[in-house]
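Aim 2 progress update. The chain analyzed this quarter is reproduced below.
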Amino acid sequence: MNRWNLTGCLVGAIFLMAAQAPAAPSVTIYNQNFAVVRDQLALDLKKGVNEISATDITAHLEPNSVVLRDPDGKRSLRILEQDYRAEPISEGLLLSLYEGKEITFLRDTNAILGKIIRSGYVPHSSGMQRYGQDYRMMQGAYASPQNGGGQPIIEVDHQLRFSLPGQPQFPSLPDDTILKPTLHWLLETDQGGKSKAELSYVTGGMAWAADYNLVSPELDDRMDIVGWVTMDNQSGKTFANARIKLMAGDVNKIQPDGAAYDRSEYLGFSGAARGMQPPVSEKAFDDYHLYVLNRPVTLHDRETKQVEFIRAANVKSDRIYVYDGVMLDRNRYRGYALENIRQDRDYGTKCNPKVWVMREIKNSESNRLGIPLPAGRVRFYRQDTDGQLEFTGENTIDHTPKDETLRIYTGNAFDISGSRKRTDFKIDNSHSWCDESFEIKLQNHKEKETVEVRVVEHLYRWTNWTITEKTNTFLKTDSQTAEFRLQLKPGEEQTITYTVHYSW
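Predicted structure tokens:
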């Protein structure tokens, strides 16, 4: 029995194609490569069982996430059966449907009759679509599984060929084919008439990310910040004039409720023009943050679209220099325990000569920011004497709450260098102690600028340690880290020495 043609077996059932209502869809895109789509279907139902199909859906819909309901709650909608087919008709699929039959193949101007023994077609599995995955439709593709199962076999003149003898010509479309991804329901209702139903589902193939451009003048570390959200639609569906929300945070799984979105007050972004609504509003939602586009947006299939969501001027930033003189071979020391590190005399003796350049930005209202910043890429530019902007580094940031400090590595300093060497090492396992001494040199080759360098030393050989000798004061920034701060005048070199005593 054809499961797509059940009207002859269902008393009182009718077939209806659910047309897309003119109401705009609503889409919440997560930064973990999935989205929740809410759309409306115009239905004209009869009391009892109805057969309904909807085709204006994505190609990466998760079938078990579908919710079809009457948003007004005036009628009962009960889904008896639901089928999801995400593989529209293609040449490979048609070949499989005509297996065992003879069709015509065209080669140049010649017509060749061939019987399809095996199509070689491997069907697409809609069950492979899950959160965070972006499976593409395999239209017309011939897979090559083991044992040659992906090769077609065509019989021509009583001889077998392991390839198509020409372009296949199909006489017609079989009844059991679809042209677009399709949801099909057997739907029961307690009353007939026209109505609008809300269709909600989770889909893959959609993602968004944040990007920040930070521009500084020639001789100042204050900067202007412009942030963009980039939306990528690879879902197989175009969303026209859609209401779009962007969810930021590390969501494991969430079922958004449209009514719950209104519990928090909207917060406007700084830097909006006077009297103008910002393009994007932000608000807290559960343990995450929602960024709401304040105007409808058309997001075409296979399209990447950008919308400005933050603009702030004269944001104060601090440029800091960090010297971390230890260079480790991570592969060699992978899995090392503290006991192994304590016994390895060579651990931590290789020198890193580079001084890191970092930016610190306070995400506060007093610093013209003070908004939750979603994770994304940050690019730095500085204006040259000729007025042109030059790229000076980039990195990524994680989700950053309000009033936190951003610390961003942008590259290595050209005119500041460092060196680190061990000058002594003693270990007495019988009495459970170890002494280690280091000499660290910093040089400022800048001609006019005084710089401060933060020298970071990791006390890695054991958890109990004491610095017994030192030439400079230090800060204990955590249980195994000491930080020395040096002020270096133009052309100056300074040396730090210290000895650390470990006991266990």
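The chain is about 5% helix and 50% strand. Helices lie at 91-97, 338-343. These observations will guide the mutagenesis experiments scheduled for the next reporting period.
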